[in-house]
Amino acid sequence: MANYLFHSADSRGKANHGWLESRHTFSFGSYFDPQRTSFGTLRVLNDDHVAAGMGFGTHSHDNMEIISIPLQGDLEHRDSMGNAEVIRNGDIQVMSAGTGITHSEYNKSKEHPVKFLQIWVLPNQRNVEPRYDQLTLNPQDRLNTFQQVISPSPEDDGAWLHQDAWFSLAKFEDGMEKTYHVKGEGTGIYMFNLSGHITVDGHSLHDRDGLAITDTNEVTVKAVTEAEFLLMEVAMR
After folding, report:
1. What is the pLDDT of residues 169-201, one digit of tens each?
2. Domain 139-235 in the same topology as domain 12-136
3. CA–CA distance, 141 with 169 (Å, rounded to integer)
4. Separation of alpha carbons 209 and 189, rounded Å
5. Is 61 assigned a ligand-binding role in the annotation?
6. What are 78-110's pLDDT values in tens digits?
7. SS3 string of the chain?
8. Is 103 annotated as ligand-binding?
């Protein structure tokens, strides 16, 4: 029997650094909840708003798969691998930090804030060679269906990372209902509703609500209103 754990949007951790406002689904920085340290290998899900012209200065990571999904505006990225890219709304970025990288991310706009999801997934291999990947997605490919944007294989749709993880973005019209079938073994599903109102196996999610689901082979999502959401299937080990 499937297990469900609901995380309301207002139950998330909060951080306000002036230039950065962030909401943390899982323990991060000064926010710590022993009941919310991760969901399997999904370690970080931060909902970040960065003020115009501001950003994260050069800092380091290792042995982590890091995903950035801009929701509004553009991020300017530079790293120790020599990448200097702009990540726009409609793009997805994946970095395998592996043996260690340094990077910075800034709001490219001097006038408008940038909003993006920062997601960390624990890898299934340690000390891999650092790697950068960035794709431009077609938003039409998620209309009333699950657009796969992350997988464990470079041969599959979307970007890839070092873990049994499949991420899908979706935009459902009012009344649309569709079932997602689990792709891996020993995985769980974390649903993060971006906007609108959906039900997941009858559980109601509004803007920025989350739902952790384990012990299931499928979930059925129904749009009560027009809605956009991110479905993350990740290894639980």
Report:
1. 999 999 999 999 999 999 999 999 999 999 999
2. yes
3. 9
4. 14
5. yes
6. 999 999 999 999 999 999 999 999 999 999 999
7. CCEEEEECHHHCEEEECCCEEEEECCCECCECCCCCCCECCEEEEEEEEECCCCEEEEEEECCCEEEEEEEECEEEEEECCCCEEEEEECEEEEEECCCCEEEEEEECCCCCCEEEEEEEECCCCCCCCCEEEEEECCHHHHECCCEEEEECCCCCCCEECCCCEEEEEEEECCCCEEEEECCCCCEEEEEEEEECCEEECCEEECCCCEEEEECCCEEEEEECCCEEEEEEEEECC
8. yes
Domain boundaries, the chain: 12-136, 139-235
Architecture of domain 12-136 in CATH?
Answer: Sandwich (2.60)
The CA–CA distances, whole Å, from 56 to 1, 231, 237 equal 43, 26, 31
User: Does the 139-235 domain belong in CATH 2.60.120.10?
Assistant: yes
**Residue 50 in contact with residue 114, Cβ under 8 Å?**
yes
d(CA 59, CA 107): 16
Identify the residue whose tokens are 């006038």.
111
